[in-house]
Every structure is written in structure tokens, then in C-alpha cells.
Amino acid sequence: MLPPRSRPRPGVRAGTALLLAGLLLAGAAAAPVAAAGTPGEPGTAGIGDPYFPQDGNGGIDVLHYAVHDAYDLDERRLRGHTVLTLRATEDLASLHLDLLLPVTSVRVDGRRAAYDRPNRHELRITPRDPLAAGETVRVRVAYDGWPGTIRWRGDAPWLADDHEVVTMGEPHMAAWWFPANDHPRDKASFDVSVTVPRDLQVVANGVRVSRRVHGPRATTHWRSVEPMAPYLAFFAAGRFAVRHGSDGGLPWTVAVSKAVPSPTRQRSMRLMLRTPGVVAWLEGELGDYPFAVTGGLTTSLAPGFALENQTRPTYPVLAAGSVGTVVHELAHQWFGDSVSVRDWRDVWLNEGAATFMEARWDETHGGRSAEQWLEQTYDGIDAHDDFWRIRVADPGPGRLFAWPVYVRGGMALEALRRRIDDEPTFWLLLRTWLADHRGGNGSTADFEALAEQVTGLDLDGFFRAWLHATSRPARTAANGLSGG
């Protein structure tokens, strides 16, 4: 994600009547269905991430999401249902999902199920028959509400106006538009079908399967076959200029909002059309692209950041010459999307790597070398600056997207490159990391262990200085810095 300095906090925009209607719907708590016997334990309301204890849920593994949403841009109202195919990983009397929209019904394998809301973020479901470990069921949740009116622990990421909507946000977005096991540890395949007025287009992750017109409305179906973390799922609806193609056998789709003024829209499209070339360059550095399709979308809205939605990053209108942002978000397809964090405190593995690949792009495209970037950044920031006070490998939930996590994370990788002092070994390390964890998750401890295994070096002091300390690393060769 770029830039991290000013994450958006859209204001709540809805009339009092809409807000009251949303509260009334939220108050329709539970279907009056009693559960049968209750062997097994209740599923926990969290997957175990210390930063966000209620993110994700215990006892379940979601295999697939089939999202069916209809969005009214005039009312800013979202109605829909999602069918989750999930497997119980333990005996469960009840299970949790993450959802902020008011719920209207729940069914498990076609049978009505009891549900309640322990808090606004959690949907607790009690099936008629408890689930046995290993059992796979289909859970259908219907919902209806105004996502733009919802704030949760300071987040209000819904981004929409009367002409366009785009669902992009990190670390939280899914719960505003579909029920989820909302943590990167639980990835699943997706089918996303969105209904809007027929004169609008819908763009989402993956491959467009169909577009079906019915009266004044149209439903567009997109499919993502590779497992994806819920926060990376997105859709955008509006009027877009769309281009398609294939580069080296890799299909791509890019789009730019027609609400962007014409000269700027043309510039934005030229930037989006650089996507296939950037992906090809990244493949040369990192290995095969991890997904079946690629692309990008520029919105006319003002999110204040770009985001690495899987297969199709979303961007604000960017200034001329902003190819570095495209490099950053596409590098995330490897670092962040294919290999995701185990816990959110490991986010430097995503952001630091994407920042490093920006520096690598510059040095291979006529700019300054990554070593010059490292040294100049190190020398340009005073040792007593707050930049050095964040613990990169554990910045805290309120500073996940602080600029030092990005820059110091990228500097750490370039310093590691200098410390290893062997180009083939350094790139072997990155490629091994990506291959070993492809489609899964990794932690800082995992990366540190792999680095020592691949290089044969004792890197404890190096990683302590760059990732765990809250002071500027000493200028030493052992820390990958010249002149030490």
C-alpha cells in the first residue's frame, strides 16, 4: 500500500433517517431457531493476532466465498448475501464470522440457523446440528445496510459518491461488504457478483466470467481461483475506460474512471498500461508471477493511497512519472498477496520488500543505485529522529503503516544484500522465500531463519539492529553499511 502517511478517514455521509433504519436493521438480532445438542466448543471470536484480537475466527477454515451484492449508488445502500464454503477445524457448537452490516438471515446447509451479535463486529452462528471437526458446510448470510455509515475502532473505509464506489482498505475492508474470516491466515477462492444500474461497469479481482443485463440493472460476475486474503478482495462500480490484452501469455485488464478529466485520464491509462511490462520485469527479479491474471484500476475517488488488491491493484489519480507506485503495488503480488503475513506485526515483510523493489527498479532503469539510496537515507536522517524509534518487526497496531516501517524495511533488505555481499545468494534468498511460502503466510522469525540457512551466516546481530532495535543501526560492515 502507498502512501501510508495519510490513510483515509471518509466522513459519515447519510441522513438521520438512513442511520436510524440501519440501527433498526441491526436490532433484528436473531432468528428464533434453537440449536440441538451442543457437543463441541464455541468457536473463538478471533484467530489469534495480538494486534487485532477480533480479526478472523477460531475453529474454521473458509475454502470459498460466493459474494452476491447489489449496491445502490444514490441511496449508498448495499444488499446481498454471501455463501461461505467452510470446514470446521475442531468440534464446534457455534462459529463466528466478521461482519459489520446488519444481518437479515443465516442458513447452514440450507437450514435456518440461530445467530446473534456479541458486538457490532462479530456474527455468532449456532447451527441446528453442531459441526464435527473436518466437516464441510455451506453458510449463507444475508445482509442489508449502509456501509458508508459504519465506523469500527476508528476505521471508516467505505469510499463512494453518487457515481462511483470502490472497496479498498487495509488491514480491514471485507466486513463492510461481506461476512468473512477476516485475517490473512485464512485465504480462499472467490466468486464476486455485483449488481448495479446497467449503465455502470463493475471491475473486481481475477477474471470476468459474465455480465447479465436484467431490466434497468446488470450483474457482473468475477472469479478469483487462487486463494486470497479477504482484505484483498475488492470491487469497483462506475463508468470506466477498460483495456484488455495479453503479455507473454499473461492476460491483463486495466481500467480508469471516466470521471477523471480527459487529459489526466489519458495519462492515467498510459500508466496503467505499464502494468504488463512491470510484471515482466518483476518476474525476472523474483520468479514467476504467482497469479493467472494481472491489471490495475485508477479511481476518480480520493482514497489517499494505492492498494495491492490481488491481481488488480487500485490507485488514486497519480502524478506524471509515478511508475514507482505501480512497481510497489505489483511487487506486493509476490510480497503480501502470494506470501502474506502470519500476523499483522510482520507487515514490514510486505511493505519493506515492495519499497526495496522500487529502489531496485530505479537502479536498473537509469536512476541511483539501491546502495546509494540506502546510504543517502541513512545519512539524511538524524540518529535522534523518531524515524529510528519504531520497532520495524513489531511497530504496534497504531503504526502498522508508518513511513519508517516501509523505508526502514526496504533499507534492511538492501543492507542485507550488502551484508551477504553475493548477488546470486541474495536473490536466491528472496526467491526461496517466495517459493517456500507461495500461497501461504510467513513471519519475521521465518524470514530470519531462512536467511541464515541460505547464506550460512550468523545474522542475529544484523536483524536485531535493523528490525528489532529502536535506535539507528551502527555504521558497520556487519550491518551492511559502508565506512564501518
Automatic annotation (TrEMBL):
Signal sequence coordinates: 1-35
GO biological process, one term: proteolysis
Occurrences of domain Peptidase M1 membrane alanine aminopeptidase (ranges): 324-466
Reaction equations catalysed: Release of an N-terminal amino acid, Xaa-|-Yaa- from a peptide, amide or arylamide. Xaa is preferably Ala, but may be most amino acids including Pro (slow action). When a terminal hydrophobic residue is followed by a prolyl residue, the two may be released as an intact Xaa-Pro dipeptide
Cofactor: Zn(2+)
Keywords tagged on the record: Hydrolase, Metal-binding, Metalloprotease, Protease, Signal, Zinc
An annotated Gene Ontology molecular function: alanyl aminopeptidase activity
InterPro entries named among the record's database cross-references: Aminopeptidase_N-like_N (IPR045357), Aminopeptidase_N-like_N_sf (IPR042097), Peptidase_M1 (IPR001930), Peptidase_M1_aminopeptidases (IPR050344), Peptidase_M1_dom (IPR014782), Peptidase_M4/M1_CTD_sf (IPR027268)
UniProt cross-references to Pfam families, sorted A to Z: Peptidase_M1, Peptidase_M1_N
EC class name: hydrolase
EC numbers, comma separated: 3.4.11.2
The Aminopeptidase N-like N-terminal domain, residue ranges: 64-232
Superkingdom to which the source organism belongs: Bacteria
Alphabetical list of PANTHER family matching this protein: AMINOPEPTIDASE N, PROTEASE M1 ZINC METALLOPROTEASE
Family of this protein: Belongs to the peptidase M1 family.
Protein name, per record: Aminopeptidase N
Lineage, top ranks: Bacteria, Bacillati, Actinomycetota, Actinomycetes, Propionibacteriales
